[in-house]
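Late entry, uracil complex.
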Amino acid sequence: MRLDKYLADCGLGSRTDIKTFLKKKRVTVNGKIETSPKYQVNQETDSVCFDGLEQSYETFVYYLLNKPKGVISATEDKSHRTVLDLLEVSDRKKGIFPVGRLDKDTHGLLLLTNNGALAHAMLSPKKHVDKRYRAQIEGVMTEDDQKSFAEGIVLKDFTSQPAQLTILEVDTDLETSLVDICIAEGKFHQVKRMVAACGKEVTDLQRLQMGPLSLDETLEQGNYRRLTDQELESLAVFGVPL
Ligand code: URA
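Prediction complete; structure with ligand written out below:
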């Protein structure tokens, strides 16, 4: 692999940034200054350093994003901003995509990665990965609604698997509720449709958890960070190379 691509994949910057670093003699290969972006790195044997620090090549990257409302969970779109537009150019590694979709008006936890096997495992219906949402509701959610969720709600095209509805707050004057909803599926508009089937409406939806990952409350909407080592280790349950 070319040296400029190698260093860009290590997360040091864009290919243009890397060319500047090379010109400034900040890169060594096996202890010798290397200035050519075309140098072919031997990943098995070469030791590549930037400012004296050895660089390790990352095959996969993982970002935890607090998705804001108003952007779509896609990699490209002609008329809308996508979640990839929120990433720094140097972080938009080839092949990165969101693991699953949140509606345009839903905010909260979204994992972005270029690890297709992981995404496949996390989204597989067979794995029953729990997704937990906090929902603001127009209408008063009741114990009967909790029972319906627990039994599985009959929708037009499918019956949901048993889901958990936790009522956090009810305002009987305003006729609103704040609830947590945990589902193991990820069908189109699923939470909104399950709530609508109870005769109420979701007015705000935030994803708090997906499998072992939780929303980092210190991340402002629209911000993201790499997964911590601990978060990455928690993904080992999916049994794919990370
Ligand atoms: N359910 C929905 O209705 N919307 C989402 O964005 C996620 C789950």
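The mean pLDDT is 95. Will revisit in the morning.
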